[in-house]
Amino acid sequence: MSTTAVQDARKQAEALDNEDPIAFTRNEFNIPTKAQIASSRLADSHPAALPAFEDDALSIYLCGNSLGVQPKRTVTRLNQYLTTWATQGVQGHFKPLEESPLPTWLDADAKAAELIAPVVGADVSEVAVMQTLTANIHLLMSAFYRPDANGRHKVILENKAFPSDHFAVETQIRHHGLSTEKSMVLIDSSSKDNIISTEEILSVISAHAGTTALLLLPGIQYYTGQLLDIPAITAFAQKHGIFVIWDLAHAVGNVPLYLHDWGVDAAAWCSYKYLNGGPGCIGGLFVHTNNSAVTKEITDEKPEEGYNNRLAGWWGNDKKTRFAMANKFHPVAGAAGFQLSNPSILDITSLSASLEIFQEAGGMEALRSKSLKLTNFLEATLGQMKKADRAHFRIITPSKPEDRGAQLSLMLSDGLLDTVMKELEARGVIVDERRPNVIRVAPAPLYNTFSDCVQFVEAFSAALEVATKRTL
């Protein structure tokens, strides 16, 4: 960028940051400092024990699509949980404590469901905070993928699916004694950047409609950042008798979702990206009311009637009978009936600390409003780079704001990735890479600023100049 362009971008970013109605949420997070990310030893103190850092000391952390930063209140909530455990022992399961913001452990999953439901646009009964993403996909497929080798047996997914989704589908098909060659259908993209059009998806569904049992797609494609048309694809597949599961790993906490109103059959997600739950934190699951109802009173004589069969565990049992220790499964209605074991309270406490901030920010509509401005501003600022620098990368994420979330994926020229990543880190910038040539940049509206976007572009421009000189 020219000196004038840099100055103009900085002024514009400063003005936009000053106008930001949810700028206060940035102070709710521990953003690593440049010194911290450069260090190779464990810090002596948690940031909570240190004075607040000035903004210019902080790293430019644009990696919420991979791992969100830590909410400051996470330490407080976890300490409250640990104190409860230390002072109450097993009583923490049932005993409410005065002046504690935490629910009893028996009710922790229900409280977390109340917090996550508005984030995904669901009734509280339709969501459960449980397990991890791929485990939940397996649980959903075990309940709703019922192949008939002579009828509907195929599963449709994208050709460039996240590997774990691909593995889940492969192994589910084999589990039923079928072959992936006959029962797995991959959607190919005609785009060199692997952008899959809605028309391409619907065309594949149409071609295999009579023999397909299930469709598994990502709400946002992890590599390109493309936001798929969830309601249109769902409605079209259901019209052809196909059950639809969405992997919302990159969509939850990133874009507004209306799973109930869209009639989505089921969905699963992780919580360590835009939800800031922490590395490997507990996942989530959505099952539409139409698929999770308990339609009749379950009796001990016929305990298998009145609900959709699933792999079951005691935590999915109705709370009224859960601790009766009877070997009769009486599932609670809704997604909670798909739970297996009692969930990690450590995980739920960590996730709920972040979800509190989502509430305080005004919900997903407020976050999306800022996110659209942030990513559009990042894209525009990248477009102001010198022509010589712009020749060495292109944005492969869809250009229409409504077709993407926060993330922009930048495809670099061959041979530049390693040097660019090293140079960005040296300048205090954290993004992630997808080999062989892509870096993913995701300004998260809860804690990133417009100034972060400008500083990234400045650092990226400098990194490209170093990288291109080395390849000459």
From TrEMBL:
<comment type="similarity">
    <text>Belongs to the kynureninase family.</text>
</comment>
<dbReference type="GO" id="GO:0030429">
    <property type="term" value="F:kynureninase activity"/>
</dbReference>
<feature type="modified residue" description="N6-(pyridoxal phosphate)lysine">
    <location>
        <position position="273"/>
    </location>
</feature>
<comment type="subunit">
    <text>Homodimer.</text>
</comment>
<dbReference type="Pfam" id="PF00266">
    <property type="entry name" value="Aminotran_5"/>
</dbReference>
<dbReference type="GO" id="GO:0016740">
    <property type="term" value="F:transferase activity"/>
</dbReference>
<feature type="domain" description="Aminotransferase class V">
    <location>
        <begin position="61"/>
        <end position="289"/>
    </location>
</feature>
<dbReference type="InterPro" id="IPR015424">
    <property type="entry name" value="PyrdxlP-dep_Trfase"/>
</dbReference>
<feature type="binding site">
    <location>
        <position position="134"/>
    </location>
    <ligand>
        <name>pyridoxal 5'-phosphate</name>
    </ligand>
</feature>
<dbReference type="InterPro" id="IPR010111">
    <property type="entry name" value="Kynureninase"/>
</dbReference>
<comment type="pathway">
    <text>Amino-acid degradation; L-kynurenine degradation; L-alanine and anthranilate from L-kynurenine: step 1/1.</text>
</comment>
<feature type="binding site">
    <location>
        <position position="247"/>
    </location>
    <ligand>
        <name>pyridoxal 5'-phosphate</name>
    </ligand>
</feature>
<feature type="binding site">
    <location>
        <position position="314"/>
    </location>
    <ligand>
        <name>pyridoxal 5'-phosphate</name>
    </ligand>
</feature>
<keyword id="KW-0963">Cytoplasm</keyword>
<feature type="binding site">
    <location>
        <position position="272"/>
    </location>
    <ligand>
        <name>pyridoxal 5'-phosphate</name>
    </ligand>
</feature>
<dbReference type="InterPro" id="IPR000192">
    <property type="entry name" value="Aminotrans_V_dom"/>
</dbReference>
<dbReference type="GO" id="GO:0005737">
    <property type="term" value="C:cytoplasm"/>
</dbReference>
<dbReference type="GO" id="GO:0019805">
    <property type="term" value="P:quinolinate biosynthetic process"/>
</dbReference>
<dbReference type="GO" id="GO:0034354">
    <property type="term" value="P:'de novo' NAD+ biosynthetic process from L-tryptophan"/>
</dbReference>
<keyword id="KW-0378">Hydrolase</keyword>
<keyword id="KW-0662">Pyridine nucleotide biosynthesis</keyword>
<dbReference type="GO" id="GO:0019441">
    <property type="term" value="P:L-tryptophan catabolic process to kynurenine"/>
</dbReference>
<dbReference type="GO" id="GO:0030170">
    <property type="term" value="F:pyridoxal phosphate binding"/>
</dbReference>
<keyword id="KW-0808">Transferase</keyword>
<feature type="binding site">
    <location>
        <position position="133"/>
    </location>
    <ligand>
        <name>pyridoxal 5'-phosphate</name>
    </ligand>
</feature>
<keyword id="KW-0663">Pyridoxal phosphate</keyword>
<feature type="binding site">
    <location>
        <begin position="162"/>
        <end position="165"/>
    </location>
    <ligand>
        <name>pyridoxal 5'-phosphate</name>
    </ligand>
</feature>
<feature type="binding site">
    <location>
        <position position="250"/>
    </location>
    <ligand>
        <name>pyridoxal 5'-phosphate</name>
    </ligand>
</feature>
<comment type="function">
    <text>Catalyzes the cleavage of L-kynurenine (L-Kyn) and L-3-hydroxykynurenine (L-3OHKyn) into anthranilic acid (AA) and 3-hydroxyanthranilic acid (3-OHAA), respectively.</text>
</comment>
<dbReference type="Pfam" id="PF22580">
    <property type="entry name" value="KYNU_C"/>
</dbReference>
<comment type="pathway">
    <text>Cofactor biosynthesis; NAD(+) biosynthesis; quinolinate from L-kynurenine: step 2/3.</text>
</comment>
<dbReference type="GO" id="GO:0097053">
    <property type="term" value="P:L-kynurenine catabolic process"/>
</dbReference>
<dbReference type="GO" id="GO:0043420">
    <property type="term" value="P:anthranilate metabolic process"/>
</dbReference>
<dbReference type="InterPro" id="IPR015422">
    <property type="entry name" value="PyrdxlP-dep_Trfase_small"/>
</dbReference>
<dbReference type="InterPro" id="IPR015421">
    <property type="entry name" value="PyrdxlP-dep_Trfase_major"/>
</dbReference>
<feature type="binding site">
    <location>
        <position position="342"/>
    </location>
    <ligand>
        <name>pyridoxal 5'-phosphate</name>
    </ligand>
</feature>
<protein>
    <recommendedName>
        <fullName>Kynureninase</fullName>
        <ecNumber>3.7.1.3</ecNumber>
    </recommendedName>
</protein>
